[in-house]
Amino acid sequence: MKVALYDESAFHQDHPRGAVSFNYLLMGGEPESLENYRYILGRQEADFQMPRHRHTFEQIRLPLVGDMNLGEQGILHEGEIGYFPEGQTYGPQDDPLGDARPGERLQLVLQFGGASGLGMSAGRGRGPASRRPEGEQRRDRRAIRFPRPRYKNVIITDPAQFNWLPVPGASRVERKYLGSFTERAFWIELVKIDAGAEWISTSEGARRLIVALAGTATVDGTEIGRLSAIQVDGGEKFHVSATEETVLYIVGLPAVRLPSAPSDQFDVIDSDGAIQFENPEQAI
Fold first, then answer.
1. Is 283 helix (H, G, I), strand (E, B) or coil?
2. CA–CA separation, 249 and 176 (whole Å)
3. Last residue of a domain, one of 90, 123, 157
4. What residues make up the domain containing 59?
5. Residue 13: how many CA atoms within 13 Å on its side-chain side?
6. Quick one: which of 138, 59, 52 has its CA closest to 93?
7. What are 3-36's pLDDT values in tens digits?
8. Which whole-number Å values give the CA distances from 168 to 49, 172, 175, 246, in the listed order?
9. Tell me, what CATH number does 222's domain have?
């Protein structure tokens, strides 16, 4: 188990566009591992723009303060959870600060290798409808292998519309189960623990990545508060004792399982956005 307390001084302005700074809450897995991930708290420092693009990995985003403009896919509002499937194109994004102060907007971003088995090492590329912003220099082309998206769009979930349900065998503990996705069967849920209550749970087949959205509690002998992050691996017991009402945001990540016959559901694109097909017949 890893417990990482929130450090407000740990932001680094290392986004390639320079408008967002990152606080790396948790990171796990070797660079080439199918199980690698990174959990980031992003803070918007200036007007943000990004062309239409896609990623080879999965993303789950939760705006904590402020909304996120997804471009053609609409707005991901504060408190909503957006699932960005691997290979799914989104944007172009245009997020001016407007009335917000620099650093006021915050967003949780979890990136992890998907069911395609590419992990997170391959990179990202622009979608076929993207255009290079005026003045941006042309980069050297390089081929990137992208999974074809399993879903037709970004999936937006509004947790406020879900019911809190009692957790069997746990007094004064409730859960909102928000969904499970792809053949990897990763899931998203919220768990609320009343002040003075405890929750003990295990998951044999999955790593769980947990961020405290509210409250204070004790986990593995460590006092946690808002935005503390926890990694609980498969088979480990997770024991939390709430001193105040605590809300935990949980993503469960079972191991990646690949099909016995390699999948052919991939495209190869270059960094300039043109699609190249692995099988020329697919271009028809």
1. helix
2. 10
3. 157
4. 9-132+139-157
5. 8
6. 52
7. 999 999 999 987 776 799 999 999 997 777 898 9
8. 45, 10, 10, 18
9. 2.60.120.10
